[in-house]
Each structure stands twice: as structure tokens, then as C-alpha cells.
């Protein structure tokens, strides 16, 4: 499977890299963990149905996911919140993570309704992006929460869920787990036989 | 200074083995280690109960078990079996971090968890990068020399023999070290990957001295330790057993010498006898059940957040503001290092995820430079974020959505350096108890941090130097994020009780048989990663205890000779 990412957005740089095909070289503990991420997504149980729809759209926007296949971000984030799996800290001016997420989806939905007269999950991609960008640009409070700290929390959860997925690794040229095989060709410009050369190396970031 | 690099001669190995056999007892899951572990009853009054099985606690346990002391180590997290429990994956390593609730506050709140807080046998060193530099001699006298920070009640020379021992026992690999007190390392430097190559090239091009090392990854035969496979997942726990952590460097030897490592046991309170003024043991929760381990001596080694939290939570009639807190020092002078991280973009593929993140460092800017607008300094090291951490680096620049994806697709072209800036100890940077409670009903830590002016000027200078190095290496674009690394302080060491919590031997001024043997005793921190110094300090405390070089501590029946000092 390849995530749909246009070439202009960095898609297609590592043609043929399929991290999952390297799994015979992974240790058992790692292998079963990574394979679980491409298996059936965990059922949503922390968010209610309405929250799930908003959160799913929001998480997809945060990492630019449009179209299938997609990494099931809302299921992964939901499972973390249900398990209370935090990063081991919270800002003193925010409630605990689960509560921040519940408030976030409610407020982001309110913002969409106020701007466009339609709920966030039903808004167009451009409208969703505009609603989120407004939060990103907010200095100070957003619905009674410090916008910068809320944004930081959203991105931490979204990035962790997305870049833990092997399809995302394929997109960035990262070959994934490396035990017990390891690497033998170290150094600038050197590759292992299973690493794929960047097809567009001149692209500026 | 040690003589010529001894490498791993048979004689050196024999002398290390005679002092600490851990490397020859691996793997930790072998029956030799697990099935031989002695188990004490809660009612047994052991010679020493230690809270925390990380750098400080494991070292003390190993040293004193060898001296015949009965030792129990209470560890809140699990006893890891690397092959079963650890994965070659970022997100899947979440359980290595201390992720119980904590609240961060202040003008510059410091993220905890994966950033600096471990759990389980081996502690934070299970997921530390592996850098093992020494402090410089100047670090012990910053007040006298520079008029900032605080003087330690001991000198570099007091720690030197323990630094040398620990560098052999971890062991540490690196080039001959020209900074601080010049010294060599027992293992020769590792080959470097793309990121290290970029650093070396950039430093050379702009006239900055850089060296490969010092990293606590064996490079050559060392007991049953396997050789590094350069897979780059050092921060996710080394399944290879190449990178040092107390789980493989000190715990096995402690166990075969009779120590009990009691995992999944969270200390909640230290008990002090109001009449004698002595600690009598530690209350802990194991499997949801409250228990109490009796002991003749207690050592707390739970690191800079949990150690103050435990002391503050152990208030009593005698200590209404928290144990050992007569002078309001417990929890204060907490320190992190400013750790700005600068990425540089190269048209060539760097692939920084290959090879251990710790490769190359410079301490050229470590000492105070009178021509600069700040005191003390910084070090610079390679850091090699894996995809999730790199995504957070990109996101911290304000990128998200398609823009984030596009920049992430460029991952293989980036090199990354990190600085460690010596932040100064400030009394307002502290750990207090929050109104929120954890699942055991114990108040969680509330951690407040704000930078001073010197701290901010250091971070700016470090950023400029890293950007200079990367540009000199040929980077077409650089980007820097502000972050923090490591934890020390919170129960500082001092000459007397009016200036700190413990003395030079890590013994608390208030309770003669209570010790603090972790990074929380540091009065200052230098620009060095703290692990090696924590272990050296713990080894020194253990040697002092074993020698009975103190009054007020009931020592075991046999008399011991002091090996290192006298």
C-alpha cells in the first residue's frame, strides 16, 4: 500500500521502498508490534460517535491525509486516550490530555459552525484547514485554553500516530526497524542494499 | 591522567571482572541471574534499602552487595527482558519512560517523560543516548571561579578514580579527550555515520575541535556483550546489549552477590523513628498492596523529580515540611540543560538514523570565556532524531498538514546537532507537590522552570555555533528548535545543612542513615550529560559506606577496607 501524496508534496521520492517487506529481518517483539499497526484498527471507545467524526477529520488535516488508503489516526489516538497513555506530563494551564481532546473537538466544531455554518466533519478540506490555521495563529487563549499548548498537544499525538506507521516510513525513505540486522554502510551518501535512493534529491524542504 | 590507552587487554578485563562481573553474567534473562536472586522478607531488617534502580541506585547496590551488605532495591517499573520487552521502534518504546502524571509549569515548562525520565530496572540510562563525558575540574567551583552557581563540597580529584572505574565498567569508547582534565578512554572510538561525518567536516572547516565519543557503547570484546550493530535505536533501549545501562552493567553483579531487585514496587514514604531520628525503612506499593521494608540504612535514588517528591511526601511531626527539609532546600535548584537542536539540509543523503545518535562532540565552548556576555558554556553533540521526533522538530517550526509531509519527505537529507547549555541553579526552579494525586493517592510532582538571562544568552550562542558548523559543512538550510535535556538537582549537596540537603558523601544532614545517591544532589551541572557523574558519585558514596568512614551509621559486622581512598 502507498499513501496518496502528490509529488509536489513530497510523494514518490523513494519508489519501491516497502518497509513491511523487510519484516523477515525484524525480531519477533518488534515484528508483532509493527504488524498490529497495519492490521485491524482498534475500535473507537474513548470518543463518542460525533467526537470521533470530528477528531478523525481534524487528525487527517494535521498531517495532510486526503484519500485512501490512510493511517487510521483517530483509532490510534483514541486507544491512547482510552488507556491514559500520556507523554508523562501536562501543562499546568491545561487539564489532562483526554479532557483537552474532548474540549478540542467540541470547540473546533463550534468554530466551523460559526465560520461556515457547518460542522467540522462536514466542512470542505479548505474550510477545515482554515479553521485549524486560525487556532495555529492564535496567540493567547483559544476557548479558555492556551492556544500554543493545545496546538503542541494535537501535533504530538498526530505525529506520533502517523510516523509510527510503516506506510509513512516508505514516504520518507526510512527503512524502519533494524534489529537484529543493523546497518553496515555508514556515512554520507552510502546506502544498504535495501535502502532506496531519493528520486528527487534536489527538492528543497 | 591514565597512561596510554590500555584497550581491552586481558589484564584490564581481569581487573574489571574482579570488580564487577556483570558483563560476564549476561544475558540478564539467564537463569544464572534471575533464578539466583535472593529474596528478603519485609520484616528482615536489611542493611540497605535503595529506592530506584537506575544509575545511582544500581551502582550503590552492586558495590555494597559485593561488600557483603544485605541490599533490597525497590524499583517502580518492571525488570526488563530486552529481547521480549523492547522493540526497534519509537512509538513502541513508550513504556520505557516515566509516564505517570506530572504537571509542568513556569515561564519555560520542561517536558518530562521520554525527554528525561525513565522507569524500570536500569532507569533513564535504558533510553539515554549513551554519551558519558566527565565533568570538568572547574565545575566543582563555579562560584569561586565565575561568581555563579555553587561550589561542590568535593573536588574533581575526589571523583577521578571513580570516573576511571566507571569508564572501564560501562565501558566508554572515544578518542583521547583534550578538554577538562585530559584523559583517554578504555575503548577506541566507533566508526561514525553520516551525521557524525557532517559534524566533523563542519567543525574542521570552521576551526572548531571535535572528537568522536565519549559513548558508553563497547567497541571490542567485553564479557558477553555483543558488538554494536549501528542500528540507531539507542534511545529505544539497546536490544543488542552493546550500549551500557545499569540493567547490564551493574544489576547482574549485584544480584549474584545477594542483592534483591524488587521490581514493580513504588516507594511512597520513608519512615523515620521520631525518638532516634533514624530512618527505619521504606513504605512501598507492590501489586496494589501497601508494604514496608525494614532497613538499617536507606538510600534514595529516584532522580530529580521523584526523589524530592518522595521526601516531600514523607513529612512527619519532626519534619512538617517534608523529610530533610528543615531549611527549605528539598525540591529547589532543579536544573535542566538548555538543549537547542539544529538541523542542516544537505543535497547528499545523510540518513542520520543509521549509527548510534551519540557520535561526535565538542567541549571547546564548555568553560567561561571572559569575552562573552555569559558565564560558563555549552557542549555540542550529534543527535539523530528518528521520524517521530524529527516530525516534532518540524512541527515546532510551525509546519503542519501537507507542508509537514513535504518537509518530512526530505528526512534522509538532514543532519542534526544538539547543544547542552549549562543552565544555572535557581531556587525558584523546583519540585513541589501538586493537588492532583496519582492512582495510589500520592500527590503528583509539580515542576516549575524558568530560565535566567545567562541561560538565554547561552542558548543563543549555542544555536549560532551549531548553525555555523552546519553551514561550514555545506548545509543549504538550517533550522533550530528550543528544547531542554537531562535533569539534576532538587536535593543539592553542600558543605553544611544551611546550604543543602546532603554532604559530600551524599548523606542527608538531617537523618544520619539516609542517603541520596542520584543526580538530585548535583549543585551545578556543567555541560556534560550527567549519567557518568551520577554513577561515579554513587560509587564513591558506596566506597565511603563500605569503609565505615562515618559515624552514626551502623555498619555490618565485618570490617572493610577502603580500596579507593585513604
The end-to-end distance of chain B, rounded to whole angstroms, is 19 Å
Number of domains of chain B: 1
Work out the radius of gyration of chain A: 19 Å
Using the coordinates shown, work out and report the CATH topology of chain B: FAD/NAD(P)-binding domain
Largest inter-chain interface? A-B, 67 and 76 residues
Can you tell me the CATH architecture of chain B? 3-Layer(bba) Sandwich
The secondary-structure class of chain A comes to mainly alpha
**What spatial form of chain A do the alpha-carbon principal axes imply?**
globular
Order of helices and strands of chain A: HHHEHHEEHH
Number of H/I helices of chain A: 7
Q: What is the CATH class name of chain B?
A: Alpha Beta
User: Could you tell me the strand content of chain B as a percent range?
Assistant: 15-25%
Calculate the mean pLDDT score of chain B and round it.
94
Kindly report the spatial arrangement of strands forming the biggest sheet of chain A: 2-3
Domain module count of chain A: 1
Instruction: Tell me the quaternary state.
Output: heterodimer
Show unreliable segments of chain B.
Answer: 554-566
Distance between the termini of chain A: 25 Å
The percent range for strand residues of chain A is: under 5%
CATH H-level homologous superfamily name of chain B? FAD/NAD(P)-binding domain
How many helices of chain B does DSSP assign?
A: 15
Descriptive labels:
heterodimer; A: 205 residues; mainly alpha; two-stranded antiparallel sheet; 7 helices; globular; B: 566 residues; alpha/beta; FAD/NAD(P)-binding domain; 7-stranded mixed β-sheet; 6-stranded antiparallel β-sheet; 18 strands; disordered C terminus
Q: How does the SSE layout of this entry go?
A:
The complex is a heterodimer of chains A (205) and B (566).
Chain A: H1 28-38, H2 49-62, H3 73-83, E1 90-91, H4 97-116, H5 125-137, E2 141-142, E3 145-146, H6 147-162, H7 166-172
Antiparallel strand pairs in A: 2-3
Chain B: H1 10-19, H2 22-25, H3 31-34, E1 46-51, H4 55-66, E2 71-74, H5 82-85, E3 103-105, H6 142-146, H7 156-169, H8 194-205, E4 211-212, H9 246-249, H10 251-256, E5 260-262, E6 265-272, E7 279-286, E8 289-300, H11 303-312, E9 335-338, E10 341-345, E11 360-362, E12 378-382, H12 387-395, H13 402-408, E13 414-421, E14 430-437, E15 443-448, H14 453-472, E16 477-481, E17 484-488, E18 514-516, H15 531-546
Parallel strand pairs in B: 1-2, 1-8, 2-5, 3-15, 8-18
Antiparallel strand pairs in B: 4-11, 6-7, 7-8, 9-17, 10-13, 10-16, 11-12, 12-13, 14-15
Helix pairs in contact in B: 4-15, 7-15, 8-14
